[in-house]
Amino acid sequence: MPAPTFDLQSHSTRSDGGLEPAEVVRLAAEAGVQTLALSDHDTVDGVAEALAAGAHQGIRVVPATELSSIDGEREDMHILGYLIDHTDPALLEALERFRADREARAGRMMDALRELGFELDTAAIDARIVAGAPIGRPHIARAAFDHPANAQRVADEGLEDFSALLVAYLIDGAPAFRRRTTPTIAEAIDVIHNAGGVAVWAHPYWDLDTDPDVLDAIDRYVAMGLDGVEAFYVTHTEEQTRFAHEACERRSLLTTGSADFHAPDHRLFNRFRAFELHGLEPNLGPIA
User: Fold this and answer.
1) Predicted TM-score of the model (pTM)
2) Is 201 inside a domain boundary?
């Protein structure tokens, strides 16, 4: 079965990816992607560079961002905004506000890791702060994983890379995890709509485990104005993909998809078009 020609979530050095935006676009084009979204977390700083690279590479780049959002007790539910006006002043102000909250949380998580006995190599984080770039959990996890003082502990705990340390210590329920305070799902959707975009819930089965929970979230988010769901995703099973796709079809929602590219050396998200359609028809609506 041929791989999809669109890939609607990817990340660059403007958030937690490993490559510059133009390099992300170049690799996507080489991989056969025809429609790409650069969707860095809580920022659009790489969009202009990606659009210019897309014109050079002959690939359509969709202006996008991914907003880490709060849903009750759930932290970091991700809402993708596509076709946004990445120059809109109100959008830029909202993103600055969201990043400030994200950075305050990052400080609390670094403090928590230190309280748990980890040393942190913060040189890269400090450089990002000076450059005005957002700080995410992958950067914090790498600061702990890369510090030589933690090498024995990392080996003893079987943490094979910084992503494993992130899962062990920095996800919801883990000992160094700390919550954000903004935006809520509704706020994220409103910010996207006010910037002229469409709002899509990213990777539902990354955040939730069961079909009933996913269905409940879809219905609640639709009531807040959600336009679609990322039904096709690199870690979704065929059963999960079919369930999400059918739920969206019944509600006339968009169904998008991505391999969530971060870098060629990322443990999970390392190549474009690495997700399956399972014979189903995506509904990209205006994104197409």
Assistant:
1) 0.85
2) yes
